[in-house]
Amino acid sequence: MKLSESIRKALIQQINVEFHSAWLYRSMSQDMKHRNLPGYAKWLDKQYEEERQHGFKIINYIEDRDGVVDFLPIGGIDKHYDDPLEVARESLAHEEWVSGLIRDLFQQARKEGDIETELFLRWFIDEQVEEEVNGRENVAAFEKARDCPGLLYMYDKKLGER
Ligand SMILES: [Fe+2]
Ligand SMILES: [Fe+2]
Question: pLDDT value at position 2?
Fold first, then answer.
């Protein structure tokens, strides 16, 4: 079954969200580098790579379904952060927003009876659960480390081992 136009369009929107997420994490990584947190910067760089892979996963899926991908402009990032706790909180909020988008996509596929897309999205649903777990862990850790440079140093080191 060929992809419906509405599912194709919705998947292309999600490709852009994934690449926008990649830019967001890459930009946050730069800010944390400047704050002398190389571990968190490295962790965010890995996140950047993962988000790009998510984007490519959807591109490949559309092509596998004999669909055509439109390569649209990716939303840029011009916001900068000083505080790792702020980065962690914004990352978590961002992932929660993405989880909602994936759920909406899933519901749309279900409504249209597009079983292949439903099954394809399963991986993304699991991934979002994981992303939110990581996000909550980082928020909790940076909250604890807020007024404690020793803890901040240790947690940064731990993140660098990812
Ligand atoms: Fe993603
Ligand atoms: Fe993500």
Answer: 86
